[in-house]
TrEMBL record, chain A:
One of its GO terms (biological process) is ribosomal large subunit biogenesis. Keywords: Nucleus, Ribosome biogenesis. Involved in ribosomal large subunit assembly. It holds the Pfam family RRS1. This is Ribosome biogenesis regulatory protein. Residues 90-118, 202-223, 236-269, 302-339 are annotated as: Disordered. It is found in: Nucleus. InterPro entries: Ribosom_reg (IPR007023). Belongs to the RRS1 family. It comes from the Eukaryota. The gene is Rrs1. GO terms for cellular component: nucleolus; preribosome, large subunit precursor. Residues 314-339 have a biased composition (Basic residues).
From TrEMBL, chain B:
It comes from the Eukaryota. One of its GO terms (biological process) is ribosomal large subunit assembly. Residues 275-284 have a biased composition (Basic residues). It comes from Copsychus sechellarum. One of its GO terms (molecular function) is rRNA binding. This is Ribosome production factor 2 homolog. InterPro entries: Brix, Rpf2. Keywords: Nucleus. The gene is Rpf2.
């Protein structure tokens, strides 16, 4: 009787052990934070520092137990994701991972959208769209489909053209082959020039935007460097008057007038002119009637007329004159101004 | 490629340049593993093991390079530009800093963060004799310890380690292929890195029980010097372009249970003029009708 009970107890204990070994439940004080897109889990619980201090296999066993618990939690989460069988019924079970949430720095700065080239601007203005061209063209002479350009092109190899017609109205003594070669060279050069111009324009437009004068990546163009050098020179106690210059720098600094509104008269200048100016100012301030500024009055009148004309034209059809028409119109208008 | 003053003359060169230019969705970060002028056996073994873990997204430089990362970063930046690697691990050894590893990352080919770690104990892949998981497995990463949240330097180290060991970003993953796990514990000023191979055992339910087998390189690290990026440079590097954000659809909301709600905006209706006869939903169903009538006798039953 006792033996049976002992056996039963042992069997129960063994079953419990087996259950524990197979269980997937893990006890944690604080929940882990998961980033399933990166297969990442962060455990905030402070690990048992005292136990881990002792070196040797005990520490390894503890670390392994901790790792096992954390891995169990992470894998449980991963297995809860929506999964499907890839490649038919017999394929492996594949889970759809969400987007990674942990923010990591980029490798390179994001690409800047480049400004449109001269042609692109024109095409947008005119409404020209790209025509999709076929890659093969029917060659009548060879009676087969050939490429549009490149190796074995449809029109035959242009460098082996044995006939060059003299166009009507051209000099009969002129070498047509030389002319064709020269024109091709000119076309290629013009294309390259325009490409470089577009690049320079894009580069200039890109560097005009950032506010920080010194870009952290170290790419600075000449204008930025010049501006920064000027600011550095002027930030001395004597405002850059006695700073030594480099051998190739310009001797005279550019005019520091600073625009129309930041120009000041010297302190001890023309005393008579200053006196008359101050008296005139006092006189104008004391007047009962307001002073008439002819320029401003005329500008105001012109603007009023323009607004009326625009309002009147809104009802009628507006003619599309395009950029050229508008450009031609403006000089005519500004000529009306009186000084 | 648009920024090239010299246009590439072959398609191969063009592809090479396109791979390296800044993109919306970036490539997986490559790591370069460099030996310093006085690298010893331990440090060399560490570099070789990390290379084995990070293959094929790593380059291991064979020769010793006499540089000091904390003093002069130009040589590292030159290597980064040539090999298009944004992560690096530099190993060296001297009396003052034995078994030194400098782990770091780049932004736009300039050093962003650098952290110097000392290797106190190292068990390599070769010393642990059991089966290894295949090359190029995406590892699972676990960080244990509150130090990784409390201390700023540890936080950056965590971000660096995730960046280093993350591998390619994949949309889906084979559940049976979750074989490799890297576990980092921060305790007592030390960081224990252990790598285990995951064995999925049967449990009662669908989710398997995990058993771990020590496999790969295990390192005991201690943090030495750091060279972290300034806050604004770090923020600049974190900036994601607008094209990557998923577009939010207006008037659609989800609740906790997964139900999707939509909002419809209607003009004001004159309810007295609604035609309710044509609305099928408002018609009474036969069950409702009989319930309403109540006492009215049903149809005569046909007697057999």
């Amino acid at each position: 009787m006792a033996a049976v009970r002992v056996e039963a107890v042992l069997a129960a204990a063994e079953e419990q052990e087996a259950e524990k070994r197979r269980s997937i439940a893990v006890e944690k004080e604080l929940e882990l934070e998961y980033d399933l897109g990166n297969l990442l889990a962060v455990d905030r619980n402070p690990p048992p520092a005292a136990a881990l201090r002792g070196a040797g296999p005990r520490r390894e066993a503890l670390l392994r137990a901790l790792a096992r618990d954390n891995t169990q939690l992470l894998v449980s989460r991963l297995w809860e994701l929506p999964a499907e069988r890839a490649g038919g019924a017999g394929g492996p079970l594949v889970a759809q991972l969400p987007e990674p949430t942990f923010r990591l720095p980029r490798e390179k700065p994001p690409p800047k959208p480049r400004p449109p080239t001269r042609w692109e601007q024109f095409a947008r203005l005119k409404g020209i769209r790209r025509k999709k061209k076929t890659s093969l063209v029917w060659d009548e002479q060879a009676k087969e489909w050939r490429r549009r350009w490149g190796y074995r092109r449809a029109g035959g190899d242009p460098s082996r053209a044995w006939l060059a017609e003299v166009p009507a109205g051209a000099d009969p003594e002129e070498d047509q082959f030389a002319r064709l070669r020269r024109e091709k060279r000119e076309r290629v050069a013009r294309n390259e020039l325009n490409r470089l111009r577009n690049l320079a324009r894009a580069h200039r437009a890109g560097s005009a935007v950032p506010a920080a004068p010194l870009h952290p990546t170290g790419h600075q163009d000449r204008d930025e460097l010049r501006h920064v050098a000027r600011v550095a020179r002027v930030s001395t106690a004597s405002l850059g008057r006695f700073q030594p210059r480099l051998p190739k720098e310009s001797a005279e600094p550019p005019s520091r007038s600073g625009g129309k509104k930041r120009r000041f008269e010297p302190l001890l200048g023309n005393l008579a002119a200053e006196r008359s100016r101050q008296l005139e100012l006092l006189r104008d301030m004391g007047k009962k009637k307001p002073v008439l500024d002819i320029t401003r009055a005329v500008n105001k009148q012109m603007r009023q007329e323009e607004a009326e004309a625009a309002a009147a034209n809104k009802g009628k059809k507006q003619s599309k004159r395009g950029k050229r028409g508008r450009r031609q119109q403006r000089p005519g208008r500004s000529g009306k101004k009186s000084g | 490629l648009i920024y090239c003053y010299r246009k590439p003359k072959t398609k191969r060169a063009k592809r090479f340049l396109e791979k390296r230019e800044p993109k919306l969705n970036e490539n997986t970060k490559n790591a370069m593993l460099i030996k310093g002028g006085n690298a010893n056996l331990t440090v060399t073994e560490v570099l070789k093991d990390i290379y084995a873990v990070k293959k094929p997204f790593a380059v291991l430089y064979k020769r010793k390079n006499i540089t000091r990362p904390f003093e002069d970063q130009t040589s590292l930046e030159f290597f980064s530009k040539k090999s298009d690697c944004s992560l690096f691990l530099f190993g060296s050894h001297n009396k003052k800093r034995p078994n030194n590893l400098v782990i770091g990352r780049m932004f736009d080919y300039h050093v962003l963060d650098m952290i110097e770690l000392g290797v106190e104990k190292f068990v390599s892949l070769k010393e642990i004799k059991n089966s290894k998981c295949p090359e190029g497995t995406k590892p699972m990463l676990i960080f244990a310890g509150d130090m990784f949240d409390v201390n700023e330097e540890y936080r950056r180290l965590k971000s660096l380690l995730i960046d280093f060991f993350r591998g390619p970003t994949v949309p889906s993953i084979r559940l049976a292929g979750l074989e490799y796990i890297l576990h980092f514990t921060a305790v007592d000023g030390k960081i224990y890195m252990r790598s285990y191979k995951v064995l999925l055992k049967k449990s009662g339910c669908k989710i398997p029980r995990i058993e771990l087998e020590e496999m790969g390189p295990s390192l005991d690290l201690v943090m030495r010097r750091t060279h972290l990026a300034s806050d604004d440079l770090y923020k600049l590097s974190l900036k994601q372009p607008k094209g990557l954000k998923p577009k939010k659809k207006k008037n659609i909301s989800h609740d906790v249970f997964g139900t999707t709600y939509g909002r419809i905006h209607m003009q004001k209706q004159d309810l007295s003029k609604l035609q309710t006869r044509k609305m099928k939903g408002l018609k009474k169903r036969p069950a409702e009708k009989s319930a309403e009538d109540g006492g009215v006798t049903p149809k005569k039953l046909k007697s057999a």
